[in-house]
């Protein structure tokens, strides 16, 4: 097992890790909080939004956007900490978000309500451009989860949890997606949150298999970090970009107990290749 240490403990369903400035930002879905934590474990709640899921991204101008899933809105956090409307998504039911270097934000929707027991329907990806316009740019995705954009803004990667793969799209000048392809077949893995590194490999977190895995295009496994609980998402950051942050919790899997209370952790381990792209 790779050497990992617990940076923060005692949280709920932790998700959406993003390194920004000199801190890691993540969401505690159970508490409805966006939290910042430094490398010494000092944490601060920076936003409260009653949303499940509760995912975030950073725009190029340094402001955070937060998905308010139940009311179908994308919020922007101002420098003074207030939240303002950024885009109307038109309907509830949103999951992850990534913003690229041009200010385009990609959000995905699972297509069905997993926790209510609703029948499976494929999901989609929606684009929000800097002028606030909203349009669907991909569909037919088998439970879209984590997303990442390569450093050159050319490729969007989507984790298909039910498809057991990472799917790639070419990003056009206007943000439109094309050239859909399987970037990596992951066997029986259920990829959740993802990030990209400077060698073009992808780290993905896996809840049922309790691990975080680095893969090359095509699916070759390059490194595995074993966990003692479900891995929900991962992000690269830290001073050198080589700190892998993993958010993990013990999965309960029922509407009453998504994760075991207090089992949510932020873990850190050092890797060889720094992060690149977004998030």
Automatic annotation (TrEMBL):
One example of the protein's molecular function in GO is: hydrolase activity
Species of origin reads: Rugosimonospora africana
Could you tell me which SUPFAM superfamilies the record lists for this protein?
A: Calcium-dependent phosphotriesterase
Keyword set includes NAD:
no
Q: Which Gene3D superfamilies match?
A: TolB, C-terminal domain
Task: Tell me which family the UniProt entry assigns to this protein.
Answer: Belongs to the SMP-30/CGR1 family.
A Pfam family it matches: SGL
| Cofactors demanded by this protein | Zn(2+)
- Which named protein is this? Gluconolaconase
Q: Any binding details for the cofactor?
A: Binds 1 divalent metal cation per subunit.
Ligand binding (substrate): 95, 113
* Keyword Metal-binding found: yes
Signal sequence residues: none
Key words, A-Z: Hydrolase, Metal-binding, Zinc
């Amino acid at each position: 097992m790779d050497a990992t240490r617990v940076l923060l403990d005692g949280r709920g369903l932790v998700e959406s890790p993003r390194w920004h400035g000199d801190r890691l930002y993540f969401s505690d879905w159970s508490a409805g909080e966006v939290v910042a934590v430094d490398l010494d474990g000092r944490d601060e709640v920076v936003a409260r939004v009653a949303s499940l899921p509760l995912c975030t991204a950073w725009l190029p101008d340094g402001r955070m956007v937060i998905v308010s899933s139940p009311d179908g809105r994308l919020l922007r956090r101002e420098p003074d900490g207030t939240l303002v409307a950024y885009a109307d998504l038109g309907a509830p039911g949103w999951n992850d978000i990534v913003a690229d270097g041009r200010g385009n934000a990609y959000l995905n929707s699972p297509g069905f309500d997993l926790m209510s027991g609703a029948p499976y329907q494929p999901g989609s990806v929606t684009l929000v451009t800097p002028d606030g316009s909203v349009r669907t740019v991909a569909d037919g995705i088998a439970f879209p989860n984590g997303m990442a954009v390569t450093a050159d803004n050319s490729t969007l990667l989507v984790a298909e949890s039910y498809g057991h793969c990472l799917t790639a799209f070419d990003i056009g000048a206007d943000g439109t997606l094309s050239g859909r392809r399987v970037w990596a077949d992951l066997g029986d893995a259920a990829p959740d949150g993802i990030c990209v590194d400077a060698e073009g490999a992808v780290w993905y977190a896996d809840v049922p298999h309790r691990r975080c895995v680095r893969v090359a295009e095509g699916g070759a496994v390059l490194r595995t970090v074993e966990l003692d609980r479900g891995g929900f998402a991962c992000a690269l950051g830290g001073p050198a970009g080589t700190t892998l942050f993993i958010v993990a919790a013990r999965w309960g899997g029922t509407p009453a107990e998504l994760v075991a209370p207090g089992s949510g952790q932020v873990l850190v381990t050092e890797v060889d290749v720094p992060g690149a792209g977004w998030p």
